[in-house]
Amino acid sequence: MDIDSIIDSSTFVRLTDSEFEYIVQFVSQRYGIDLSQKRRLIEARLAGELKTYGFTSYEQYIAMLKSNPASDKVDNFINKITTNYSYFNREMEHYDFLMNTIIPALSQAKKSTLKIWSAGCSTGEEPYNIAMAVDSALGFKRNLWNVSITATDVSTRALSVAKKGEYPEAELTGMPEAWKKNYMVKLPNGNYQVKDNIRNVVSFSKFNLMDPFPPKIYDVIFCRNVMIYFKQPTSQAIVKKFYQCLAEGGYLLIGHSETLSRTDTQYKYIRPSIYQKVSKQTSI
Prior knowledge:
The protein is of the alpha/beta class and about 280 residues long. It contains ten helices and ten strands.
């Protein structure tokens, strides 16, 4: 069920058409996120912000955003209006592909370095799962490999949760028992925390996919269930930037509900939601 269908916005300060349009454009231009159909969601999520600052209208709130676009207040704004929904072992087929196809191919090619980017990592479940899958696939050879996982998100609130690596037991429901035993530790408060050997492989940082990409090359990029919040031209532009960041033969993994146009992409289609950079007609 979409959140818009269950929010009663009658108790919130209402956005005028011009205020709504400004927020939609502000978020679209800076972060690529399409909120054009999310008017009630914006009102609901920002209601507390108006109260916190003692504002009686969105005109005052927008004036605050305009006064210092690089302030912590803007970070807090994006934390409020973004959706950070994630859980462990989501779309497990991708981790299986990493373990059973990508890593064996790299190993066969005599490679022992693996660089992965989790773009839009939310609260950290995805990059930690990636690290678990890599460790599980390499087994006793793990120490012979140089593995690095870069995890980025635009939400500082989500990144704070991710860096801590602590989750309620209910979020581990889909995790294989072997992974839960090997990679998680139960805390006195009943929650589970990712073990240090997995956490140490993952590097978290704030990054906006609308910004220029750093000059780094990755073997695999996970960007799953992120582009569903973007308009198609924005998604296409980001996908092209991912292509430039992939090593030859590298893979882009997107969400199962997402797709790339087969007629307007440089990627080779491998299977639903899995694409490969094969510009030299070779593959790993």
